[in-house]
Structure formats: structure tokens, C-alpha cells
Amino acid sequence: MGFLSDLVADLRRDLTAHPPDRDALRRTAADAPPPRDLGVALAGAARADGVALIAEVKRASPSAGSIAADADPVAQARAYAAAGAAAVSVLTERTHFGGSLEDLVAVRDVVDVPLLRKDFLIDADQVLAARAAGADAVLLIAASLDDDELRALISASRELGMEPLVESHTDEDLDRVLATDARIVGVNARDLETLEVDVAAARTRIGRLRDRIAVFESGIRTRADVEHAVAAGASAILVGETLMRAGDPAASARVLLGREERTT
Q1: What is the maximum alpha-carbon separation in the chain?
Q2: In the structure, what pLDDT confidence band is assigned to residue 64 with cuts at 50, 70 and 90?
Q3: Is the pTM of this model over 0.85?
Q4: Which residues belong to the active site?
């Protein structure tokens, strides 16, 4: 067992013991603003800038510990959008990442770009909760789902108007994802069991995504890292820790996008 396996096992027990109020979630989701198209946003930004940036709001992580415990998600998201991020990711997992659905709700009110709920989603009710909170897309982690669950959650997302970002972090994961019709596919350089990062392996893996929107995740710190990811086949990058640690997140985002040479 590793980090992901342990977390998902705990989550399955919790969802069984405390199922959400599905009817209430459906009513709230029905009143939520229409979802914005993540795929369209990423493809358009990639054409304009050579790469699309999904900029992430997260306060902590199991690998880095506390990153920005007192960060204001609204201010952070505004800075990202102003700098040209194609989408904003909000980490809503509370125990290990310090996030919440309340963060996502707050961000939804202040940005016009698509909003991704990043969490460990294993049940259709969690996807529904994301839409009820105003998410435009959700992250689905292949390693936390069997094949039937993965296809079911892709379908559940689309039924709510959300195109998911389907993430892989091993060759086996990627094989399983490519066997689906996922349109936006993430390759995470971080092994979610060991939490170790292998950027070289991820670059090799992302080269297989010829007909998908390819998102490179983890290990992006500099403009050179971005250029290497794009050369390997990425059309988008998802960056959290680097931007959360930056004194000026907007300037840091512009550097990653190649709009500025360096931060001041």
C-alpha cells in the first residue's frame, strides 16, 4: 500500500458510512452556472501561447507539507486569471492538502476561466458535488478507479456538462486511460503511491498522447521545464506548488507562459 491506496481505502469507507444527500446536490447543481468547456479553453490557449496553463490553488501537499497555509484562494485565482491561465484548479481535499469545496465556491465567483475540482473522486456523488459547487471540470485519477468505475465517472461528468481531466502516473495507468474516450489526459510525473517524481519518464509517456489534449503535471518549476514538456508532447501544464510559493504568482505564471523573462 502507498499514499493513494491508503487514501482511497479511507475515502471508500467514509463515503459508505456517510453518503451525501444526492437529491440536495442535484437541486443545487441544477441551479449552478452553466459549465465552461475546459477542452476548448486549453486548446485555444495552446494555440495562442504554445502551451495552456492550469494554475492550481493548494495550501499543502503530502510531499511538500505546508506550502501556503494562509493563502487566500480568491486572490490567488484572480492573479492566475489575470496572468493568462487558461483554467484554475482548486484542490478541495482537506486532510492532506488543506482545501475544501468552499474554496472552489469562492473562486467560482471571481474568475471567468474554467474551474477544475482536483480531488480524489471515486463516486458519482462526488462528481455531482463538484458541479453543485460550480466546477466546470473534475480530475479523475485512473489509479484510484477500476476500468468500469473510470468509464462510469467519465460518463457521469459529461452528463453534467463537464469534460474530465483523466490522470495517469504509470505506463499501466496510461494504457487504461487510452482505452477510454477521454479527451483531456494528464500525465503526472509524481508517483501517487511513493510520491516520488520522475520527470523523464513522464516526458516519454506524454509523447503517446497524439490525439488527446495532453496535460503535464508535477515537476514544472521553470520556463525551461515548460519548454521540455511541450517538446515532449504536452499542450498544457498543471502547476501548483511553484505558483503558490511565488511572491508574485501572476508574474511567475507569465514567466512559465513565456510572457516575461523572469520575475522581479
Answers
A1: 52
A2: confident
A3: yes
A4: 56, 58, 118, 167, 188, 217-218
